[in-house]
Amino acid sequence: DIQMTQSPSSLSASVGDRVTITCRASQSISGYLNWYQHNPGKAPKLLIYAASSLQSGVPSRFSGSGSGTDFTLTISSLRPEDFATYYCQQTYSTPTWTFGQGTKVEIK
Amino acid sequence: EVQLVESGGGLVQPGGSLRLSCAASGFTLSYYWMHWVRQGPGKGLVWVARINPDGRSTSYADSVKGRFTISRDNAKNTLYLQMNSLRAEDTAVYYCARLGSSGWNLFDAWGQGALVTVSS
Q1: Could you read off the pLDDT of B86-98 as tens digits, one per residue?
Q2: B4: contact with A, CB 8 A cutoff
Q3: Contact at CB, A98 and B111, closer than 8 angstroms
Q4: What's the rounded Cα separation, in Å, for the pair B36 and A24?
Q5: What's the mean pLDDT in B10-16?
Q6: What are the φ and ψ backbone dihedral angles of A88, each rounded to 5 degrees?
Q7: Fewer Cβ in 10 A, N or C end of chain B?
């Protein structure tokens, strides 16, 4: 299986900060990389697909980049509703689409 | 509004069985591949199983193969996960998820999850 490694595992930030989360694949996955936001007790939410495409309805402060093995999710200016856990997911290797271990974004 | 609602979770003893349901509304279930994903306590998301639109093709994670069965009743707009021979490590919140129809592999709708606890 393709392993996905996110860094950091957690971070503390303030409203208005620029936040960057990294996801690394154990082998090349081209651009088959999605990002999700998850709050406890709620349904995960798709933010970015195909590494850099913004899902409809998602605020433009979220952006994604990368290809091959290294990917980045950036939140340009953190808002209170953005404090959550973020997961990357590779969909290159069907059917086992693995997720990263998650990055928890906490309030500083 | 697209909605997925899981039910059927609960406490079960090791070796026991449980069936989860995922009721779909706001879209035609029969058009979509559907998946189950789980999250163990303090852990990340893990893909569990998938099923094609007509129910004839399924795939499973190695950790559940031979014990779990994914199925669907399109007439009832409902997805299922039959879980047998449950183990402590199956304790998790189980989410159903819809595979989007954009051509890209992405989960564009999720339920809020059903908690399954395997313990004696």
Answers
A1: 999 999 999 999 9
A2: yes
A3: no
A4: 24
A5: 98
A6: -95, 160
A7: N
